Amino acid sequence: MNQLESAAVQDDKRDILEYMKKFRLEEVLNDLINELVRERPEDPFVDLAQTIEAKSVLANSIVAVRAKEVIGANGEPALEVEIETLKGVFQSIVGGIGPYDGDEERFAGKGLTSCVKIVNTLMADKLIGKDPRRQEFIDSMLAEEDFPANAVLAVSITVCKAGAKFNEMPVYEHVGALANISEPRIPMPWFNLVNGNTFGENELYPKSVSFAIPEAESVREALEGASKLYSQFPKTLVSTVIPPVKSPNVGKLGGFAPACENMTDVFNTVKTSAIEVELAQKAVLSVNMGVASYSSILETDEGDDEVQFQYELSKFGGEEAVKVLKGSGEMVDEYYDWLVNYPIVSLEDAFEKKDAGSIIALKEKVESEIERIKEADDETSPFAADVGGNEGCFLQTVGDDCLGSQDDIVRAEEKQTFNGVTLTMNKAKTVSGFIGLWQKADSLGMPVVAVDESEENDPFLVHMAVALRCSQIRLGGLLGGFATKYNELLRLEDSQDGGEGIAYVGKDYRK
Ligand SMILES: C=C(OP(=O)(O)O)C(=O)O
């Protein structure tokens, strides 16, 4: 061996020793053998493999993070995030939220190349080497930085999917463990039937009208009824509404988006369709007004302390639309009129957040009618129907944009304005954020309606809702990717067949 060769051997030897020292190989292997002979497991090799894997930093952590600009289910760019681990590659797509590039030359400004770069560099640096089971730690680490909202949400969801795999659990069970809840529950599904406002691009001002069948005893039974009503509705619509509606059209949430001129036509069509498919006393409605989308709410100070609110309801009717402005009192009367005539049991974001007086006025009007019915033993009023599981407060007033934070939820409970909370992944920003908002609502006894705002074909929200015992869920209409999400509810319901079973909330959907 010449001098050069012996120097190379020395180098090699040093590298080996350094490597062994870095990973404490000798000590660890010695311990393992000692442990093995002490415990003498049936199959020493399986045991060794598992113990060694648990010691591996690589085996327990994120090894790569990649993002891509893809096309979302609404035809616009969406952000895909992929997290690679030794247990597999996990993926989520988040569409419908920015920040966008703003480059008008690409996708009318809605490109996502800057977000992709941030995920692939800055966020990947933070995430590689982290254990995906540490959801709360990762979510708060991301929240501390000024990372893009869509990227934070996509990463958070993907980390959760990876964490579930590491724990060898279905996602809902993993989320339950994160939130300290051991008994999952299947929520009552709402089905999006009509889309208006930003979702319908028609003249209808509610964002959506959905229906549910509270007396169905399972998701399977609810879906069967929903399928009948969903297919009957467009037929009734084109054959009964005057002036005729030529096509039912489909809106962004998979509900129908007919060119009806008013809500009375819509509600009457639902009523007639329900009679046709024998769901007349069974299907109930939820109307999401989404008043936050009416940018032209006016606050007029009349000189005294009272602030008057006005709602512009013609904003989505296009340029030809006649401007319709309604004051709070008129809105209360209009909602009351709907409630008296149609089986509406839930109103969402029906008034501006600061217009608490109007929600209370509406609730009082409804409550005093209930009192009257009880005294008069009047069974003809729609209020007499035993729905809602909460006869002291027939009407569910749900807040979505109006209840954006834990403080908003606390205030709503104090003021007795909203008695339910809509939770979306977008609003919660991360999986941990969702759990936090849910915990607040739950601690105040407010039912949670989990709502999927995205059109992407991912049933993740179903697992969140089941894990957290949300009492209601709204996933869209009965078509395309929306149907996939309802099918996931079915799968979870069926998966427990023969065993203890995941309880279905059914009629108790207000609890
Ligand atoms: C998804 C819906 O609305 P939002 O975007 O207000 O949550 C809906 O109405 O079903």
Automatic annotation (TrEMBL):
InterPro entries (UniProt xref): Enolase (IPR000941), Enolase-like_C_sf (IPR036849), Enolase-like_N (IPR029017), Enolase_C (IPR020810), Enolase_N (IPR020811)
GO cellular component: phosphopyruvate hydratase complex
All copies of domain Enolase N-terminal, residue ranges: 62-175
Key words of the record: Glycolysis, Lyase, Magnesium
Enzyme type, top EC level: lyase
Record-linked Pfam families: Enolase_C, Enolase_N
Signal among keywords: no
Molecular functions per Gene Ontology: magnesium ion binding; phosphopyruvate hydratase activity
Enzyme Commission no: 4.2.1.11
Signal peptide boundaries: none
Pathway(s) where this gene product acts: Carbohydrate degradation; glycolysis; pyruvate from D-glyceraldehyde 3-phosphate: step 4/5
Cited SUPFAM superfamilies: Dimerization-anchoring domain of cAMP-dependent PK regulatory subunit (SSF47391), Enolase C-terminal domain-like (SSF51604), Enolase N-terminal domain-like (SSF54826)
Domain Enolase C-terminal TIM barrel: 183-505
Keyword Lyase attributed: yes
Gene Ontology BP terms: glycolytic process
Record family assignment: Belongs to the enolase family.
Protein name per UniProt: phosphopyruvate hydratase
Taxonomy of the source species: Eukaryota, Sar, Stramenopiles, Ochrophyta, Bolidophyceae
